[in-house]
UniProtKB/TrEMBL annotation:
The keyword Phosphoprotein does not apply. This is Extracellular solute-binding protein. The lineage of its organism: Bacteria, Bacillati, Bacillota, Bacilli, Bacillales. Pfam families: SBP_bac_1 (PF01547). Residues 1-21 form the signal peptide.
Length: 526
């Protein structure tokens, strides 16, 4: 069996693991009958097409999955959808569910032990790092032979560069959340907009006019807060000024550090105006998330910039005191050319990494490829035809009985929180799961303005040294200056001085490093 580098893992034991238990999905095409592991060539053998074999297998097979359990609704493996997929594949899953709170530690301990289960739930960065160290199997050859549906989804979702490690290889099968769950969109009190006879703003000037109208009308009483951000970077105006408050991939496919771009000076000038006119919460730089939620829930805030699910959350809270209260989502604030951008959902939540010691790698890839097929997509996202959904005009529709309790029925069926089955989401899934809710409308309104999902870059050791050395000092200085510029403690005539200080901390090398990593990932994905 292959040995791997335990020392390297121990050195990185403090690394944070981001393990999500979110939506579900799928997105690609293939036949209902998928490949089985019978009489297939080895991973290293050349093959022009997947072997012609089908599920269910003639003989029972199984493999182990080690995963973080959902915080409140862990899957046990005995839900109806598990039984249905096992019936169709004759593959049994042996599940080890670890509470999310302790998963990062348990993940590292298991890696160090060297005694790995067949499949481990991992964030993308950890899978790439430990894969290059030898813990996880490089899947490129297996995917080419047995994973056409998986590869098609990777291409369609635009995540190839995110999955590739610094050595150019893929070390995990991706899983996703439903679209709409993590996007950030402008949100407004519709009842306040109605009071001042204005529509949701579409550019910075209209944004200013709406906030000023909220304040002048005193719609939240003497403590009216027209706009309540949490942090210096949580404003919807940056892209309208041709910048962004972080390192980002621009339209031309080049990484730039937004806080150092000329457009940031214009954005900060605009925000300073909002601050001086008391149109934004003066505590934006120091308020915690809990304090922010409490402040918005009081009913004296007119607009926020956050997850679209907050439209329903805050509306429900606010209606207890004001029956007319309603929070609705808006689109991007457009630039002078009428173009606007919002950060999209980062739907790639993690990967299922296969142990380099597993004897079931071929089976595992084929199993997940079945889940990525059209039949698998329907099973993992809509459940069992005739029970949870029916087909109408070639499209799945949840049954009326299933929709009566959309909060609990997906989880009870086994398709609500399980990462074992999260393939790339069908386009209709979010709308169907959230029918009649404000969040569905918020996503539909904002989605045309979403940018492409940015890759999760992988750095070589030399590149990582530059990132580790330069990134945090640069972000610390950025945060300090951005806040001072907004509240007027630092004059904007010092913007060039501020950029110079970032360069002294290695900004140019940092930007070059990001672009080098991106170009390498692009090349590997071709």
């Amino acid at each position: 069996m292959k040995e791997f580098k335990k020392i390297s893992w121990l050195m990185t034991a403090g690394s944070a693991l981001v393990i999500c238990a979110a939506g579900c999905g799928s997105s690609d095409s293939g036949s209902a009958g998928q490949s089985s592991p019978s009489a297939a060539p080895s991973a290293g053998a050349a093959s022009s097409a997947p072997p012609a074999a089908t599920f269910p297998l003639k003989e029972k097979a199984s493999f182990e999955i080690f995963s973080a359990a959902h915080d409140t609704k862990p899957q046990r493996g005995n839900e109806p959808i598990f039984a249905e997929i096992e019936k169709r594949t004759n593959v049994q899953l042996k599940l080890t569910n670890i509470p999310s709170a302790s998963y990062a530690d348990k993940f590292k301990v298991t890696l160090v032990s060297g005694d790995l289960p067949d499949v481990m739930d991992s964030d993308v960065a950890s899978a790439k790092k430990y894969g290059m160290d030898g813990a996880f199997l490089a899947l490129d050859d297996l995917l080419k032979k047995f994973g056409p549906n998986i590869l098609k989804a990777i291409k369609e979702e635009g995540i190839d560069t995110s999955l590739r490690a610094a050595d150019g290889k893929i070390y995990g099968i991706p899983y996703f959340s439903m679209p709409g769950t993590t996007a950030t969109v402008p949100q407004y009190r519709q009842d306040w907009l109605d009071e001042v006879k204005l529509k949701a703003p579409t550019n910075p000037d209209e944004f200013y006019q709406v906030l000023k109208a909220f304040k002048d009308a005193n719609l939240g009483g003497k403590d009216t807060i027209p706009f309540a951000p949490q942090g210096y970077n949580n404003f919807p105006i940056f892209r309208a000024f041709g910048t962004d408050p972080r390192m980002y991939l621009n339209k031309e496919g080049v990484y730039q550090f937004g806080p150092a771009l000329p457009g940031m000076k214009d954005a900060l000038t605009f925000l300073n105006k909002l601050y001086n006119e008391k149109l934004i919460d003066p505590e934006f730089a120091i308020i915690s998330k809990q304090q922010w939620e409490a402040k918005v829930s009081k009913g004296n805030v007119g607009a926020i910039f956050f997850n679209p699910g907050r439209t329903d959350f805050f509306t429900d809270v606010l209606k207890k005191e004001n029956a007319k209260a309603k929070m609705v989502g808006g689109g991007a604030l457009k630039d002078k050319n009428g173009k606007g951008e919002l950060l999209p959902d980062f739907s790639l939540k993690g990967v299922m990494a296969i142990s380099s010691k597993s004897k079931n790698a071929e089976l595992i890839v084929k199993y997940y490829d079945f889940l990525y097929s059209p039949v698998g997509k329907l099973l993992t996202q809509y459940g069992i035809e005739g029970q949870s959904y029916t087909m109408k005009d070639g499209k799945p529709q949840y049954t009326d009985d299933f929709k009566k309790d959309m909060v609990n029925n997906p989880t009870n069926l086994g398709i609500g929180t399980s990462k074992y089955f999260f393939t790339a989401p069908l386009p209709s899934l979010f709308k169907d799961r959230n029918e009649g809710m404000l969040v569905a409308a918020a996503v539909e309104t904002s989605k045309p303005d979403w940018t492409k999902q940015e890759p999760q870059l992988s750095f070589t050791q030399a590149e990582q040294d530059i990132v580790s050395k330069n990134l945090q000092p640069i972000m610390d200085k950025t945060s300090e200056y951005m806040i001072k510029f907004i509240i007027g403690q630092e004059p904007l005539t010092n913007f060039d001085k501020y950029v110079g200080e970032l360069k002294q901390r290695g900004l140019d090398d940092l930007v070059k490093t990001y672009n080098a990593a991106y170009q390498r990932a692009l090349k590997a994905s071709q």
